[in-house]
Amino acid sequence: MRFSAAAVLRTTLTVLAVVLAVYVIYLLRRPITWLLIATFIALALSPPVRFLSRRMRRGFAIAIVYIGLLLIPTGLGVLVVPPVVTQAQNFVDNAPRYAKDVTTYIERNRTLRDLQRRYDIGGQLQKKASELPGKIGSAASVLADIGLGVVNSVFAVVTILILAAFMLARGPQWRDAALRLVPARHAVAWRRVTDEIAAAVGNYVGGAIAQAVIAGVTSYLVMLILGIPFRVPLAVMVALFDLIPLVGATVAAVVVGIVTAFVDFPTATIAWAIWAIVYQQIENNLIQPRIQSHAVDVQPFVVLVAVLFGSTLFGVLGALLAVPVAASIQIVIREILRYRKLAAVRELTP
Question: In angstroms, rounded to a whole number, what is the distance separating the alpha carbons of residues 322 and 53?
Answer without folding.
Answer: 29
